[in-house]
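Quiz preparation item.
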């Protein structure tokens, strides 16, 4: 649907560990707006951690909660909004992003292995992080790209440089 007038100034998407919250906080500071992230909104609304929602209710239910969180945030928030790494897997969530100033923060597989590696709650990534990252990126890359107005590569860049690149690109 059409974005609410005065909707988010910037929406950040991209894989976990790419720096959405760090860059988002910097962007909010530079734009003089608030920062909001849907993972935190879901945890607050549910009163439990995201990993518990996955285990107790399954990923499909999490994606529904996430879609509702994105819908509310897009309607209410006029600052910088960051989404969870898998939000774009849901068609309804993708539709909510249409027309918004969405920036995809990308990183290559080697950067992902370096930055996140084993340090994740996702058990699958622990088996063979490089292979799992490659599969995750192969499955999601086109969804990120299609949902985004701009793509900003983060490889070898500091969060401050990434934030500036987002501002320049949007
Ligand atoms: C997920 C990424 C996480 C969180 C959930 C699922 C994913 O968000 O929403 O654990 O499917 O990639 P971050 O990208 O903020 O870590």
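Solution:
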């Amino acid at each position: 649907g059409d974005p609410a007038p005065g909707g988010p100034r910037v929406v950040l998407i991209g894989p976990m560990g790419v720096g959405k919250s760090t860059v988002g906080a910097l962007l909010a500071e530079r734009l003089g707006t608030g920062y909001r992230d849907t993972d935190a909104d879901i945890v607050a609304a549910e009163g439990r951690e995201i990993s518990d929602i996955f285990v107790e209710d399954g990923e499909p239910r999490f994606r529904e909660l996430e879609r509702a969180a994105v819908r509310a945030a897009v309607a209410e928030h006029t600052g910088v909004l960051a989404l969870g790494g898998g939000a774009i897997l849901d068609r309804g969530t993708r539709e909510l992003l249409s027309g918004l100033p969405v920036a995809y923060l990308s990183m290559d597989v080697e950067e992902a292995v370096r930055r996140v590696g084993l340090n994740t709650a996702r058990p699958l990534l622990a088996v063979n992080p490089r292979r799992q990252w490659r599969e995750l990126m192969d499955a999601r890359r086109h969804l990120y790209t299609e949902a985004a107005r701009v793509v900003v590569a983060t490889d070898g860049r500091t969060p401050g440089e990434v934030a500036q690149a987002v501002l320049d690109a949007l």
